[in-house]
Each structure stands twice: as structure tokens, then as C-alpha cells.
Specification:
Layout: H1 3-49, H2 53-82, H3 91-101, H4 106-118, H5 126-140, H6 158-174, H7 177-187, E1 199-203, E2 209-211, E3 216-224, E4 232-235, E5 238-241, E6 243-244, E7 249-254, E8 261-267, E9 270-271, E10 275-280, E11 284-293, E12 303-306, E13 311-314, E14 317-326, E15 330-335, E16 338-343, E17 349-356, E18 360-367, E19 377-384, E20 390-397, E21 404-412, E22 417-427, E23 437-440, E24 449-457, E25 468-477, E26 486-488, E27 492-495
Parallel strand pairs: 2-10, 13-19
Antiparallel strand pairs: 1-3, 3-7, 4-5, 4-8, 6-7, 8-9, 8-10, 11-12, 11-14, 14-17, 15-16, 15-18, 18-19, 20-21, 21-24, 22-23, 22-25, 25-26, 25-27
Helix pairs in contact: 1-2, 1-5, 1-6, 1-7, 3-4, 4-5
Length: 502
């Protein structure tokens, strides 16, 4: 009994689908007509007027907003309802629409739907109501509900959609620039475009890239049927006359550029498009320090020299270079024949250390991803080796007692002494030699230049008549790099008279 009613509902659902299909077709034609019409109107206006950036931006967003509203209203909503998304027309509303086309079944169709609603409210009369529904649904079977909507009637909307589409197509076929160029300016609404001039100004430089803190000269050439008398460069709203080398060629020099510079040109009241000079950061050494750690034995405290490259240092000094840079990627430090290429990290500080034993020249160069700096620095470090100690001795003999020897001397060194000795060799009358003996001499080890005194009593040596002694002083320095070095005084001697001589 419900089969006839279910068939009726399926036919109503088919009608609803065709209803929204019809709306989608009609909305699509509306959308094409409106979007193509507005596009044609905006591009033709732009092709004639060459609007400013602000007006083109306004037109762009007006068109974008209008296109969104049109597509949502005429395409998106019918499409969603076609696929049962959102609120759709009810079966009763569909029946009312069908009734306007098939007036003879309008009451019967609505009555059938109303009776179905009564089955839940009157359970005692349910069978009788269902029999009535089935009878009416059987009578409505032959009626083609979907034919109430004639899709062919949408052809009349083609008269709205086709004209702007045909006009755009003709422009694209015979004069594409009339559409594409103003359309491109509207799409790129934030960019500045200038109306074609009766002459052209072209930049002769291969690229608009300058090195930071250096001068940059821009060269332009004027071509065309009407050549202007003067050309100006426009910087930050101010116009500066360019230097003319002849009637067609002009130049302007940016002095010690610091940052990117936007500019354009003006001639005979006409302005060109905007250009930008890109300023490439130049690698720079801001400052540098030399940290000097002297050998401990010298007694010199560590020190830091700033921005001083040529220095003299003791042998064995540990030198640490610290370079403070900006906009630098690599620093190359060449010390003698050794070369280090060091990557500059986030701190912009480069450090390198070396213990120097010999004099060396060194040089520093820097670079970044854009360039290698031409301003390299060259210096020389003079390494002073530790010298041998110096000793001078004077001998005095007692005028009364010849066997008493007095000595006075002077010792010198770079940084101090380790120790000092008086050495004595004994040779007998028969020619036999004894081993050399030594006696420590008291000195001030930290004093690099000092006098000393020494006394020697020959009687203590146990000499016999005819014996001879040779003696001298020896001193060692405190060289902590190469090891202690020694120096001797002149050799001195004393001979005891033989018995015959006595």
C-alpha cells in the first residue's frame, strides 16, 4: 500500500533536484554575464585612464568582493542544495510549484501529503487514511512532475552572458594587449605602472647593485621621437638634475650609499616606473685586538693591544688575534706561509691563536656571499729571541798579599739569571791537572743588570811552588723557551814561583 506513496515521494525528490539544477544553470549564466561584464568594463576603463595604485587596488577588491557574492549567491548555494546540503524546499512547496503547472492535480497532490501527516495523529483511522493515500498516489502516477520545469527556458539568459564573453574573445583574438595589459595592471594593483611616453629612458648599467659605503653611478639613455631637454632622478620625493654627457646620455652618482634606494626618472613632465638600487653589505673589520701572553720567565704581565698590527714581542709569546666584524662570512688570516679561512659565527667575532718563535708577516682579508673586500690588512710581528747573558770581570790583587784575589764584575741579560759560578782549574809543576772545581756566586736572579763582587784566597787552594791555577766566571740566564744559555768571562791565571825562583 505504501509503494505508490513512495513512488510519489521519489518523483517529488526528482523534481526538487531538477529545480536546483535549473537554478544552478540560470545562476551560472548570471555569473558569467556579471563577471565578464564587470571585467570588461574595468579593463576598458583602466586601458584608457591608467589609474593610480590606490584606484586600481580599490577596483581589484571591489571586483573580488563582487565575484565572491555572485558565485556564492548564484552557484555555490544551488550546488549545495542540489546535493542536499542546507535548507531545501519541502515536498509541500514542491507540490505547490508543480500545481501551478499541472493545475488539475494541485489539490490532489497537496491532499495526499496532508493525509500522510494525519496517519501519526489518528492511529484509529490509520488504515482508512492509508487506503485514501494509496488511491490518490495511484491517480498521480502518470503525471510527469519534472516536466513542470523547462530547462530550455534558460536559453534567454545566454543573451546576457554571450555578449561580454564574445567581446572579450574578439579582443583576445585581434588585439590581446587591449585586455591583457590593463588586466595585468589590475591584478598587480600594488605595483606602479606608467603610461607609455613619447620617449623611453633606459638604464645602461648591467645591474642595479651597489656596494655599501661606496659611490654608485647610474647611467641612462634617452630614445624616441621627442627627446627631452633635461632628465631628473626622483629620490624620496625630491628631483635632482642628472649630468648630461650628450643629448641622449645622462648620469647621476649616489654618494656612499648605505641602504636600498627607490627612485624613478622625470623628463618633460613624464615619470617612469619605479626602480630600486640594491645595496650589498660590505664586509668590514670594525676593530681588532692582539692578546699577548708572554713567557712566564720574562715576568711580563699579559696585555691587550687594540688596533695595533705591527709589534715586537719576546720569542715564545702566545698571540691571540680577535677580529670584530660586520656583514662578514669568512675571514682569512695568513701568518707566514700558513693560511686559515675561518667562518664567522653569529657573534661576528673571529679568534685565532699562535705561539710565535720567529718573526712573521701576517695579513687579514674578509669576504661575504656578495664580495671579497679589497681592503686587506698586512702587518709584521718582530720576534726577539732571548740573547746570551753578558759578563765583564775585573781582577784585583792585594798589593801586600799576592795570594789574595779580588774580583768586581757586571752581568746583564734580557730578563734575569738562573745562577753563577766561579770555576778553578789546578795544574802542578809536573804538569798534572786536577778536576775543575766551582764555587757558587751569590747574585740577584731577577735583576737583569747588576754588579757582583767575589774574593778568593789562593792559600785555600793548597798550591805548591811551581803550581799554576786558571780561573773564570760563568753565568746562566733564565731562558724558559730554549733553555738556559751561559756566558764565560775571560780566563785568568796565577802561577806560584818555583823554589829556584823563590
Amino acid at each position: 500500500m505504501n509503494d505508490n506513496y513512495n513512488i510519489l515521494i521519489e518523483k517529488l525528490d526528482a523534481f526538487i533536484r531538477k529545480y536546483y539544477t535549473n537554478q544552478l544553470i540560470r545562476g551560472g549564466l548570471y555569473s558569467i554575464a556579471l563577471l565578464a561584464g564587470f571585467f570588461l568594463a574595468f579593463t576598458l576603463l583602466e586601458s584608457v585612464a591608467w589609474f593610480s595604485v590606490s584606484i586600481r587596488t580599490a577596483l581589484f577588491y571591489i571586483y573580488l568582493l563582487g565575484a565572491t557574492v555572485i558565485l556564492v549567491r548564484f552557484v555555490a548555494i544551488p550546488l549545495l542544495k542540489l546535493y542536499k546540503a542546507g535548507k531545501r524546499i519541502s515536498h509541500e512547496m514542491a507540490a505547490d510549484i508543480i500545481g501551478k503547472h499541472f493545475s488539475e492535480v494541485r489539490d490532489s497532490l497537496l491532499n495526499t501529503l496532508q493525509l500522510k501527516a494525519l496517519t501519526n495523529d489518528n492511529p484509529t483511522e490509520r488504515e482508512l487514511i492509508l487506503a485514501g493515500i494509496n488511491q490518490k498516489a495511484e491517480q498521480l502516477k502518470p503525471v510527469p512532475f519534472v516536466s513542470a520545469i523547462d530547462l530550455s527556458k534558460n536559453r534567454k539568459y545566454l543573451y546576457y552572458a554571450l555578449p561580454p564573453v564574445l567581446i572579450i574573445s574578439l579582443f583576445l583574438l585581434f588585439s590581446p594587449k587591449a585586455i591583457t595589459e590593463p588586466g595585468n595592471r589590475l591584478i598587480n594593483h600594488s605595483l606602479s605602472f606608467q603610461k607609455p611616453l613619447p620617449f623611453s629612458i633606459s638604464i645602461s648599467n648591467k645591474e642595479l647593485k651597489a656596494v655599501q659605503q661606496e659611490d654608485f653611478t647610474i647611467n641612462v639613455k634617452v630614445e624616441g621621437e621627442e627627446i627631452p631637454d633635461q632628465v631628473f632622478i626622483v629620490l624620496d620625493g625630491n628631483e635632482y638634475r642628472m649630468e648630461a654627457s650628450d643629448k641622449l646620455n645622462y648620469s647621476y652618482t649616489f654618494k656612499k650609499v648605505q641602504k636600498n634606494q627607490q627612485f624613478n626618472f622625470q623628463a618633460a613632465g613624464h615619470y617612469t616606473a619605479d626602480y630600486e638600487l640594491i645595496v650589498l653589505p660590505k664586509p668590514i673589520i670594525l676593530n681588532f685586538d692582539l692578546e699577548l701572553a708572554y713567557p712566564a720567565y720574562t715576568g711580563q704581565k699579559p696585555e691587550v693591544l687594540s688596533n695595533t698590527g705591527d709589534i715586537s714581542i719576546p720569542q715564545g709569546t702566545n698571540v691571540t688575534w680577535k677580529f670584530y666584524t660586520r656583514d662578514t662570512r669568512f675571514l682569512t688570516l695568513k701568518t707566514g706561509t700558513e693560511m686559515q679561512k675561518i667562518e664567522v659565527k653569529n657573534s661576528n667575532t673571529v679568534t685565532s691563536s699562535k705561539r710565535l718563535m720567529n718573526p712573521i708577516p701576517y695579513s687579514v682579508s674578509i669576504e661575504n656571499e656578495y664580495m671579497r673586500s679589497s681592503d686587506s690588512m698586512s702587518f709584521f710581528i718582530n720576534v726577539i729571541p732571548d740573547l746570551y747573558p753578558i759578563i765583564n770581570v775585573e781582577e784585583y790583587r792585594d798589593s801586600v798579599y799576592d795570594n789574595r784575589l779580588y774580583f768586581r764584575g757586571l752581568i746583564k741579560d734580557d730578563y734575569g739569571f738562573r745562577n753563577m759560578e766561579f770555576r778553578l782549574a789546578h795544574k802542578t809543576e809536573t804538569g798534572e791537572s786536577s778536576a775543575e772545581t766551582s764555587v757558587p756566586v751569590v747574585i740577584q736572579k731577577e735583576n737583569a743588570q747588576q754588579q757582583f763582587y767575589h774574593f778568593f784566597d789562593v792559600a785555600q787552594a793548597g798550591l805548591q811552588p811551581g803550581d799554576e791555577i786558571e780561573y773564570y766566571f760563568i753565568v746562566w740566564d733564565n731562558d724558559g723557551v730554549n733553555g738556559s744559555k751561559s756566558s764565560r768571562s775571560q780566563k785568568m791565571s796565577l802561577k806560584i814561583p818555583t823554589r829556584k825562583e823563590i
